[in-house]
């Protein structure tokens, strides 16, 4: 029976246009994630922002599961949990917490790429 380590590498660094142009990708994703807010009610916009930050954090955990060590998975799981809690509290209690969570995401992203 094949094991996880027997599978061929599914990811080739540099093969994707998203990887070759990370700045353009980041700007496009950022603008694309802001655009729906222009068409949503304030309450729906807040819900969308909360959902999006929790989704973003979950993606980091997914990358750790695919590419990381057990330690990386542990760290990303806990950090994604913190972002999910921040999203929920920002939605239900203090909306400014969502802005702080997005700022925290930017810092976490910088830590991953430096």
Can you summarize this structure?
The protein has 114 residues and is mainly α. The protein has helices spanning 17-20, 22-34, 42-67, 70-92, 96-113. 15% of the residues are buried.
Could you describe the 3D structure shown?
It contains 5 helices and no strands. It has helices at residues 17-20, 22-34, 42-67, 70-92, 96-113. With 114 residues, the protein is mainly α. The protein has a domain at 41-114. Helix 3 (42-67) packs antiparallel against helix 4, helix 3 runs parallel beside helix 5 and helix 4 (70-92) runs antiparallel to helix 5 (96-113). Helices cover 74% and strands 0% of the residues. The longest helix is centred in the middle third of the chain and has 26 residues, at 42-67. It is globular, with a radius of gyration of 16 Å. The chain starts with 16 loop residues before the first helix and ends with a helix.
Percentage of helical residues? over 70%
Query: Low-confidence stretches at least 5 residues in length (pLDDT < 50)?
Result: 1-7
Q: Give the rounded overall mean pLDDT.
A: 85
Question: How much of the polypeptide forms β-strand, as a percent range?
Answer: under 5%
Number of strands: 0
Main beta sheet strand tally, sense and closure: none
Q: Give the SSE order as H and E letters.
A: HHHHH
Shape: globular
Class from secondary-structure proportions: mainly alpha
């Amino acid at each position: 029976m094949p094991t996880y380590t027997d599978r061929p590498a599914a990811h080739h660094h540099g093969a994707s246009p998203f990887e070759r142009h990370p700045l353009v990708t980041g700007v496009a994703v950022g603008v694309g994630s802001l655009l729906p807010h222009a068409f949503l009610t304030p309450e729906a916009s807040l819900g969308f922002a909360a959902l999006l930050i929790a989704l973003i954090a979950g993606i980091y955990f997914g990358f750790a599961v695919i590419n990381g060590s057990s330690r990386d998975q542990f760290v990303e799981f806990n950090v994604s949990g913190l972002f999910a809690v921040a999203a929920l509290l920002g939605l239900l209690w203090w909306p400014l917490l969502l802005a702080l969570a997005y700022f925290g995401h930017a810092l976490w992203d910088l830590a991953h790429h430096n």
